[in-house]
User: Fold this.
Amino acid sequence: MLKNIILGLVAAATIVACGDKKDMKEELQKMTNDELLLKGDSTIYGLACEGCTDSVIVLLPNHGGDPVRYDIIDAFRNKRVLGKPKVGDWIGLILNQHDSLVADMVIDLDELKGTWCYVVMPKIKDYDKLSPRLQRRMLRDMPDSVRETYLIPREYGFSLKRQWTAQSVGWVPPQNALEDESPVVYPSLKLFTEWHIWNGKLVMTSGELRAKGKDSQEVTVENTENDTCDILYLRGDSLVLGAGNQTRSYYRRTNVEDINKRAREIATEQARKALEETR
Assistant:
């Protein structure tokens, strides 16, 4: 009896992942809007089906048809299987130029989605203009109360969502005069709005926030630009991106609102303290 139940569940999972093509096509269209794909992107999108291993990916393609079996032996050896595809996961493949049934790269897009963060520390304003000797002296002579107030780490990052939308994490709106009084400055954080995959690379779109009017609460994003990164590692709660000679490691988070709230609280307290000290 138990064996029959288990077999029934496995069969049901297989049908959900690859059986009902009409339902699955609708689901794929929700996840991958072809109109939003970047021009020139050769990535093959679809759902992972039953039969995926470290050497084979079985993909139900977004454009319809039967599941296709791809060889990923070399991709696995070259560490170009990013994530750990499971049945029903939304994935993207970069195919070999010489063999259309060989995938040189596999990206588990469902695993890539989510919130990714890293820790940043503020710098003292004009710190880089000081000599190394003065920098060391300033840090050595800094009172503990100042360290506790201003040298507070923040979490930065981004959330990758369905329909290629993105959101910045840890972003704090400018505070104008109050911010100018603070003796420290945090690294800039871009206002992310979209994300895409382009031939195996992650493309992040960001812009500048602008109010529609002087007293309007409505805002728009202007002067958008794209940053292209290599996905160097993806597994579970770890992500590593690279651009040029620089790399950055990220860890997965779930409480976006808590992170944003904490960032605003830190900024507000630092600005208040700085304003008090100028009086």
Notes: The longest helix spans residues 256-278. The chain has two domains: 24-110, 114-278. Confidence is low (pLDDT under 50) at residues 1-16. The CA atoms of residues 141 and 196 lie 47 Å apart.
